[in-house]
Specification:
alpha+beta; five-stranded antiparallel sheet; 48% helix; extended
Length: 385
């Protein structure tokens, strides 16, 4: 058993928590409490373990842990005698606890427990997401997350279960519509989160120094080439069988050709030098010296020169029914600007062809390459232009 001491009255401010600013431990904020102490005392805080043990369905035990490691249970009815001294999470969603309880009022036998579970889970997710989001975008993400979660709770509050409400007069057809609407809100929430995080990842990637991006690209390419080279050597020495050697060679060529088309001369040269090292000391070279692979650096130089010359040219565009196709040479992007919002099928087609929506430019775009131009003309039926 954990020993207790008689609480001592607290005077003034203790450990940075003025008495008038003390936060009482409640069921709505217990999920984020890390340490607590008795209200109005100077005694040392103790660790608080939210749901330390599960005793069965919807049954949990909370505990407090003293400095000597001894633990004892603390019941929700005793929360009023304790105040929070340290938190695991900032509490961005704590004020949504009432909405979460209402969301489960007609479809759960323990709406408060379900509300705590949801708030805790989403708080953990939100805090984890914020660590990967730039400082200037965090407030926007928090507001968007809260808004959509509140909408989800509101939609869920219109869902009922006959096991909770009773079967008499239960309108199954109405509830099916409510459940579908709730499912739609859930999918919208998840899709928004995925899109936002993906956009933040792209933004951070674009903000990285050019040298760092080139080094990361080379490490990734080198790892892929090394895997293919290892398989080719094992095929040549008879360690493995049943694979087509030419396919692995073709894989190396295709991967490096991607960087040739981007004009990334340094990365292409590193790949060629790496293959030369792999060829040394083996009876059968991975890629024979006669292969066009060893001409890739010169090809990359020509592509770079062409791209640099292209950036000096004026932007151009082609009109098509419903929009225009723009060669934005200064931004090195091929952009498609529609007069209206394209339908779902068109958006899926754009994404499958490498085009992504740019909120900044209000356009669907991808890097300006010959492959991009061919893909755009094929999608927009501009083959003869």
């Amino acid at each position: 058993m954990m020993t207790t001491t008689t609480p001592k009255p607290r005077e003034g401010q203790v450990a940075g928590f003025p008495k008038e600013q003390a936060v009482m431990l409640t069921e709505s904020n217990a999920y984020r409490a890390k340490s607590i102490r008795r209200t109005g005392t100077d005694e040392a805080p103790v660790l608080f373990h939210f749901r330390k043990r599960c005793m069965g369905m919807h049954s949990y035990v909370h505990t407090i842990e003293a400095a000597d490691g001894t633990e004892r249970e603390i019941r929700p009815s005793d929360f009023k005698d304790w105040e929070i001294t340290g938190c695991r999470y900032p509490g961005y969603l704590e004020d949504l606890y009432g909405s979460a309880c209402s969301a489960y009022r007609w479809n759960s036998f323990d709406p408060e427990e379900r509300a705590q579970t949801d708030i805790c889970r989403h708080e953990e997710q939100l805090c984890a997401d914020l660590t990967s989001i730039p400082e200037e975008k965090r407030e926007q993400y928090k507001e968007g997350y809260r808004k959509r979660l509140a909408g989800l709770f509101g939609s869920l509050s219109r869902c009922a279960s006959p096991a909770v409400t009773g079967p008499a007069g239960f309108d199954r057809r109405k509830q099916e519509k409510a459940e579908q609407a709730c499912q739609n809100r859930q999918e919208e929430f998840e899709n928004w989160r995925e899109r936002f995080l993906a956009a933040m990842k792209r933004m951070q990637e674009e903000a990285r120094p050019e040298e760092e991006k080139l080094e990361a690209a080379w490490k990734s390419l080198k790892r892929d080439i090394a895997d293919s080279v290892r398989t080719i050597h094992e095929l040549d020495t008879g360690k493995i069988r049943g694979y087509n050697r030419a396919l692995f060679v073709s894989s190396i060529l295709n991967k490096v050709m991607t960087y040739v088309n981007r004009g990334e001369v340094e990365t292409v040269q590193k790949a060629v030098d790496f293959i030369r090292i792999c060829n040394a000391g083996v009876k059968k070279p991975v890629i024979t010296p006669r292969n066009r692979f060893f001409q890739f650096p010169e090809m990359a130089v020509r592509v770079r020169e062409k791209m640099q010359a292209s950036r000096q040219e004026e932007n151009s565009e082609i009109l098509f029914e419903g929009g225009r196709l723009v060669w934005n040479r200064q931004a090195d992007r091929l952009q498609i600007l529609f007069d209206g919002i394209p339908d779902d099928a068109r958006r899926r087609e754009l994404k499958s062809n490498g085009f992504r929506w740019s909120p900044k430019n209000k356009a669907w775009q991808r890097q300006l390459t010959m492959n991009a131009v061919r893909a755009a003309k094929r999608m927009l039926n501009l083959q003869d232009v």
